Amino acid sequence: MSSERQQQLNAKQVKISCVVPVHNEANGIAAFLDQLSKTLAELSNNYEIIIVDDGSSDDSVSNILPFTQHGTVKLLKLSRNFGKETALTAGLDHTTGDVTIIIDADFQHPLTMLPEFLNYWALGYDMVYGVRANRKDESKFKACITNWYYQMLSGFTQINIVPNAGDFRLLARNVVAALNQCEERDRFMKGLYAWVGFKSFGVPFEVAARTTGQSSWGFKRLAELAITGITSFSNLPLRIWGVVGLIIACFAFIMALWIFVKTLMFGVDVPGYASIMVALFFFCGIQLLSIGVLGEYIAKIFNEVKRRPKYIIEHKSGF
User: 95 with 177: CB under 8 angstroms?
Assistant: First the structure.
């Protein structure tokens, strides 16, 4: 199979699909599409660029539409902002290439990596992903939190989610087909990439600075994505609170036994108000925290059973 892929690559006959999620990238999208088109034209005689506009509020769509007249650029305009994970899903649903490359439109993913991705695909890898060489562009606090989160996620789940590997990757057609079979609405794409399996290889790269605009990934959205990642691929938090409840119940039984024996031997002491209030607030907090963890899983069930579509397309152009 690798020799056949190598022949396709050498003959520039590999059909390449590029999925580019866009949200408020009006200032730089034209320059990005121009450079991406030139890069892909050097790699293949048959390629398509699928832009997924995730509810942009600026002029991103109007700047993209002229490129859709060229035949290689296609636009999916979603009816509102559904989130990057859903935008990627919409793009993958519409790809037709032998390989699909997911890349951001802010120039932080270097276009010079695309030939290397294809070379590893030709060697037989079904998934080739970029791994951030460092996080020097982030604060130390954010970098520490990110590393801690991935360590916790690895301990909570049975899948190998590679730290510092994002959405910048190449997917063979069989990988895209497997991802499209996953029907959950709350999607954590990094987890799904690992869950579907297949032969994979990581390539380190330096994250470039954004040429325009600023990231829309604030603390709130990152926290929501982190919670989705844990609840989508592990039920360990539920089990943890089950164990915590068992430990507290055993502790309460031992205390009750101790009080019973002490009362028989030494009589009854005057109860202390402070200790009672501390114990009351502690156990109430434990109960509320465990209910909150349970609520996260119930909320996911609630969202899934409604069976709403993952996304709604307002407009297609170039297809």
Answer: no
Collapsing DSSP to helix, strand or coil, 74 comes out as: strand
Question: pTM for the full model?
Answer: 0.74
* Measured distance CA(28)–CA(257) in Å, rounded: 71
Q: Which residue has the tokens 């293949």?
A: 44
Q: Which residues pair with 18 in a beta bridge?
A: 49, 101
Q: Coil, strand, or helix at residue 36?
A: helix
Residue 317, beta-bridge partner list? 75
Query: Residues 35, 180, 79, CA angle at the centre, nearest 5°?
Result: 65
In the chain, DSSP finds a helix count (H) and a strand count (E) of 11, 8
Taking only the tens place, the pLDDT of each residue in 176-234 is 999 888 888 778 788 788 888 888 888 887 776 666 655 555 556 666 666 666 666 66
Q: Which helix (H) or strand (E) holds 203?
A: strand 200-205
Place of tokens 């022949």: 7
DSSP 8-state assignment for residue 72:
S
Strand-pairing partners, residue 132, are 205
Query: Quick one: angle between helices 189-196 and 219-233, nearest 10?
Result: 30
Phi and psi at residue 19, to the nearest 5°:
-105, 120
Spatial distance between the Cα atoms of 117 and 167, rounded to a whole number of angstroms:
13
Residue 129: both structure tokens together: 């992903």
125 vs 117: CA distance, rounded Å: 9
Exposed/middle/buried for 16, CB within 10 Å: 0-12, 13-18, 19+?
buried
